[in-house]
Amino acid sequence: MARRIRLRKWIRKIRNAFGGFFKGEPAPLFGEQDCEVVMIEMIPDIEEPEAYLELAGRYGMGFEYNDFFRTELLDDSQALNRRISAWKGLERPAGVDTMHGAFYDLAPFSLDAGIRRHSLYRMQQSVEIAGRLGCRAVIFHTGLVPRFMSGAGYCEHWLDSMEETVNRLLEQDGHIEIYCENMLDESPVMLARLAERLKTKERFGICLDVSHLLLAGGDAAEWLRLLAPSIRHLHLNDTGMKTDDHLALGRGAVDWDEIFSLLDEYGLDKSSALLEMNGLEKIRESLSFLERAGRLPASV
Question: How many CA atoms lie within 13 A of 157 on its CB side?
Answer without folding.
Answer: 15
